[in-house]
Amino acid sequence: MNLPFQALNPDLFTRAQALLDDEWLTKDADLAPVLPTVLARGVGQDWHKAGTFRHHLVGVARSLALWQQPRHVRLLGLLHSVYGNAFVDLVKFDAATERSRLQALVGQAEEELVYLFCTASRREFVQKVLAGQIQADGSLPLHTNQGEAITLAPDVVAAFIIVSMADTIEQWFSWQDDIYSRFPDTDTTRQQPVHWMASLWPGPMRPSGRMLHQINRLGLALQHPALKDRLPMPPVFNACTAPLGASDDAAAASLYWSVIQQDQPLVDLDVATGVLEQAVRLNPWVGEPQMVLAQLYLSAGRREDAARAATSALQAFCSWGNAWDKRVQWDAWVAWTRILLQGATADGPGAWPERLDKLNNLALREAA
Questions:
Q1: pLDDT tens track for 174-196
Q2: Of 91, 96, 344, 362, which has fewest CB within 10 angstroms of its CB?
Q3: Rounded Cα–Cα distance for residues 106 and 112 (Å)
Q4: Is residue 21 part of a domain?
Q5: d(CA 104, CA 267)
Q6: Are the CB atoms for 34 and 75 separated by under 8 Å?
Q7: Alpha carbons 80 and 73: distance in angstroms, whole number
Q8: Spacing of C-alpha 309 from chain mean position
Q9: Residue 23 falls inside a structural domain
Q10: Residue limits of the DUF6817 domain (predicted)?
């Protein structure tokens, strides 16, 4: 088959398992003390892209926890928009009157990092990182949302890149491709009604055909000599060393979606299988195409191939901590992938059933 399947990292899987618990955040010694104050601001009632603002904040923090980021970076993920920013008018703390309260809760340096993330121009930050404009010492000249010139220190640049990667993978799907077309270079002369007419929320919920490439380029920027050893490297794109081309990202997403939409015949699986195999060759870094491919292999009786595909899909899911295909949540993708892996490797009750009426009896019986 010559497919770029990955092995499962046991340590990464163990970390991901702990985060499958809905209450994982309440068990995090660094983040749990902050959670009640954040929840008291109504974040669970605010709409945000593919869910609520609570879903978003927790999802970003989950990826950062999975990526073994230090306390100040995980706190930044949990609080990254609480003062609002140029894109989200979800002000949960008034920067004019409540900064001292947040400082008392998380620490002065940690709060200052959150405030800087909210007030610095995120659009300009992403544009400059993608353009390779990080200085030799790792710093980055920038402006605030009000136009004030600032310079981000190398530690801050590394933290902002990693949080931006987690922020993007948690929230971005096809609706945002339309509403925020070509971000960060969105055409500001185009009137907003044009964007609204392009997609009614949530739309078809296709995976984005372009933002994984952008996340990839942010990750590659962490290989800058002045940045690469400042924070743990996210375990995506082969520890942020492997490129993902823009055309490969777009083509893989399109091929995957054509199978999901059943544009390919599924009574005989050879065409759909070939399409998904090509999607995986183009983009081996997300789990959903490999998971669906594992299901097709199982349906065709190709258990060894299914086991390899499901194992690789599980590795990809455990690397991100968030779903690429947002039709269902990350933990559901992980659960079904483990069922497929069990069905491909087990004999007896755990094996993949040959009759459709036995699908309802599937239950996870193994740890992986």
A1: 988 888 877 887 776 767 676 66
A2: 96
A3: 10
A4: no
A5: 61
A6: yes
A7: 10
A8: 20
A9: no
A10: 39-122
Same domain, 45 and 127: yes
Q: Residues 290-299: pLDDT tens digits?
A: 999 999 999 9
Kindly report, residue by residue over 221-239, the tens digit of the pLDDT: 999 999 999 999 999 999 9
Same domain, 77 and 138: yes
pLDDT of residue 40: 87
Same domain, 291 and 328: yes
Whether residue 75 contacts residue 28, with contact meaning beta carbons closer than 8 Å, is answered with: no
Same domain, 311 and 359: yes
The total domain count for the chain is 2
22 lies in a domain? no
Beta bridge partners of 143: 149
Going by C-beta distance under 8 Å and a sequence separation of 6 or more, which residues neighbour residue 189? none
Residues in Cβ contact with 148 at an 8 Å cutoff, skipping those fewer than 6 apart: none
Token match 């993902």: residue? 244
Query: Sign of torsion, CA 340 344 350 352?
Result: positive
Backbone CA torsion sign across 157, 162, 165, 171: negative
Domain containing 209 equals 31-243
